[in-house]
Amino acid sequence: MSSVSGGRFDAAWLPVEAFRAVGVRRVGVRGEGGVVESVRREVREVCGWFGGREVGGGEAELVLEVGEVGLGDEEFLFEFDGERAGVRASGGVGLLYGFFHVVRLGEGAFEGPVRSELHSPALPLRMVDHWDNVAVHPVMGQVERGYAGGSVFWADGEARGDFGRVRAYARLLASCGINAVAVNNVNVHAVEARLLTERIGEVAQIAGVLREYGIRTHLSVTFAAPIVLGGLTTADPLDADVREWWAGAVRGVYEAIPDFGGFVVKADSEGQPGPFAYGRSHADGANMLAAALAPYGGTVHWRAFVYDHRQDWRDRTTDRARAAYDHFAPLDGEFAEGAVLQVKHGPMDFQVREPVSPVLGALPRTRFAVEVQATQEYTGQQRHACWLGPMWSEVLTFRPHGEQGPSVGELASELVAVSNVGDDPFWTGHPLAQANLYTFGRLAWQPSADPLDVLDEWLRLTFGDGDLGGLRTLLAGSWAAYEKYTAPLGVGFMVQPGHHYGPSVDGYEYSPWGTYHFADRDGVGVDRSVATGTGYAGQYGPPWASVYESVESCPDELLLFFHHVPYGHVLKSGKTVIQHIYDTHFEGVEEAEEARRVWAGLKGVVDAERFARGAERFEEQVRSAREWRDQVNSYFFRKSGVPDERGRVIY
């Protein structure tokens, strides 16, 4: 197994071989500062591996230099004059990103035409949110919705004593352009609440390691902190004592962590406290925290995941999909500059297929971050190979106001992902799930990038330059394959309640969570039209409102999200809804079996430990895909009474 220095952790996409083109050369590093020292340490290590050396003067084949070049902190110039390659930056972070750019290019950095290229991130903040608990939670464990072991940051109720793994993780994040990390769960429990005050020293230790790689630390906090920690009787955001308490708490944070990034807040959602308890708006709550952070340049990321989770399933007028827009679109323009509204990319909850949230086109006067989920809560939980690059790219390139308008990636201020990393030897449980973290970072740097190009980058860095065509095909089609054998045509959920792994078609159908498919003997789907349904389709502007309003114009892949239709409704593909359900579920299993076969063919090509882990995961994926197929097909056969026209076995 390839590893980073020390040999203790899987190197993911930074194995030793990825650095060969740098390490065999004479390299000069010029500049001072903590992050520059990280670059210098990288150079010395790779030269030690491959026989290159750090030099000064004009003999260098690669020059990495910090100087007065008039660039932003994270920008860099990559230059090749036909003989020497160079990276120039105004600061250490830009130099670090430039160094990893050279690593990605490999020998290509020292070949080809003379060129000078400016590289700039499209989004200023590219953050990973960890849903990590300091103490193991009796229900959610160490990491809520974590599928790769325990926390990278916390162990035995406190910050890890050995920060080697944190440093290795920071290196991985920086190499793909991620520059911010929230280190604890958005569902803030009693232990985690105290990270804000008497336990801020532990956060500062973690921040010190992340800082070496240009990463700023953020903290999830409870809105009720003035009560929980401060002994006040209220958390009313307009109360003077509350505001004073927050100002003091923030001052203490910045005394411990001068470059602290800010807070992440989940409020009035799924039982978390918030401003609604005091008759205040979410703008009131966010702006109070923004005011406390403003003197230090910090920001509050205020999550827009607010909805009624005690819904009456018999009431078809209440629609969870509407909630974020109904709560936050009317507040556009009321949020302070230091408040960032963090909006899930779809209106529900990270399903395998959702429309792009209409909120992302309804905030012209508000800073917002698009939140995606790298941890595969509803997409196989890192037991299934499901590369999410195509999904995220569809969101980021979606144009809420039509083809002539800007894309979501152009409208957004930031991009945030829920982490898929833990203390598992392979970081992400399934070795191929590492591709999701890498792809997130690269798309956050450039939302318009072709995700397949990013996948090729990851494959080359991780596995080298051999024939990886089969593995590329496997991953490129894995999201579509997962969709085929799970929930059809955008209907969503159909999962086991609670842990969300495996099929349960009616698992949430009569629950208070608002996640319904409304299948009956005549048809399936949720009517979200303006004319006859919940009106959700009307939350979009033109042209999308009219596209989604009509059964005829609604895209097939979202049909059941927007409409309740008969089983005999003919899709644009020419198939009926019921036959589509049957066919895709059989196809999905076949594609899972083919993916298993492709991985089996890599025995001896990838290292033995990685191969064994992948083989075990693909066996589980095939088993689960078959279970999905049989349960979903049997359910709809029994509901509809319509047989499979191809006569396959349906129970």
UniProtKB/TrEMBL annotation:
Transmembrane segments: none annotated. One of its GO terms (cellular component) is extracellular region. Residues 428-648 form the Glycosyl hydrolase family 67 C-terminal domain. It comes from the Bacteria. It holds the Pfam family Glyco_hydro_67C. Residues 118-427 form the Glycosyl hydrolase family 67 catalytic domain. One of its GO terms (biological process) is xylan catabolic process. GO terms for molecular function: alpha-glucuronidase activity; xylan alpha-1,2-glucuronosidase activity. This is Alpha-glucuronidase. It comes from Streptomyces roseirectus. The lineage of its organism: Bacteria, Bacillati, Actinomycetota, Actinomycetes, Kitasatosporales.
